[in-house]
Write a sequence for this structure.
């Protein structure tokens, strides 16, 4: 290979010098994005979107500029939690995310649909293409921390996000049920295969608190999160209770007004990335 120019893109030879091409996409030229954190789960229904929103709000309260990239195309709920009803707007330069009352930038497919209740009946490659465009075509303005609300599982969209967006770390969301081991294991294995750092685990619906005496009630039985986290060498970053006020805040689009300090360790872990 004495004639090698070290330009692998123009060479058809298969040699030891060849390096795998990166599939990472560049964001829009006008975007300014700091760290990107994915929020994932091995299955649906564990409150991943809730955790994503709470983390964005908590980071905003720590005087960071935050954004939420809603990659859960077929089950978008982020705009409703933040009380956003205005549609995303665009011009010749690109697409602009909506802003919450306190300044968090948000892009979701619900901000592009005529009616937010319209179902998204698209095949996998189309959904993956839209997710990629949320990164390349949307103009994100001076974001310190972008939270990516991933769809559940290990299908097309999570794969697209991991391959095309420079994820700085992920947080795994789970619940106390017996399925926790399988849920965490799937997410851990995918992250390792994609060489994405895992910041830790958040257990949602961890317990309910008696309004009269304050006793913690294990609704789903004893939690096994500590032993599971230890098995994979991961920290437990938060245990979020089943809280009626929190649920009401989500339903009313007032997630930015939630009260609670459950996510302090998770926020600290993100700030050290």
């Amino acid at each position: 290979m004495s004639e090698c120019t070290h330009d692998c893109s123009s060479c058809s030879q298969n040699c030891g010098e060849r390096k795998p091409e990166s599939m990472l996409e560049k964001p829009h030229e006008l975007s300014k994005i700091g760290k990107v954190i994915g929020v994932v789960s091995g299955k649906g229904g564990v409150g991943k979107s809730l955790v994503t929103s709470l983390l964005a709000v908590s980071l905003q309260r720590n005087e960071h500029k935050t954004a939420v990239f809603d990659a859960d195309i077929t089950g978008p709920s982020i705009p409703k939690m933040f009380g956003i009803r205005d549609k995303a707007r665009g011009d010749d330069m690109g697409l602009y995310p909506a802003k919450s009352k306190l300044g968090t930038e948000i892009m979701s497919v619900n901000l592009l649909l005529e009616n937010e209740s319209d179902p998204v009946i698209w095949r996998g490659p189309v959904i993956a293409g839209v997710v990629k465009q949320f990164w390349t075509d949307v103009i994100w303005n001076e974001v310190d921390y972008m939270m990516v609300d991933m769809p559940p599982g290990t299908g097309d969209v999570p794969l697209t996000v991991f391959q095309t967006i420079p994820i700085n770390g992920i947080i795994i969301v789970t619940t106390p049920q017996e399925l926790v081991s399988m849920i965490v294991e799937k997410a851990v294995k995918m992250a390792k295969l994609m060489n994405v750092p895992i910041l830790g685990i958040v257990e949602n619906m961890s317990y309910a608190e008696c309004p009269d005496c304050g006793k913690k009630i294990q609704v789903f039985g004893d939690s096994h999160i500590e032993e599971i986290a230890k098995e994979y060498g991961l920290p437990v970053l938060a245990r979020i209770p089943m809280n009626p006020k929190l649920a009401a805040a989500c339903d009313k689009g007032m997630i930015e007004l939630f009260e609670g300090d459950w996510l302090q360790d998770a926020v600290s872990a993100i700030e050290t990335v």
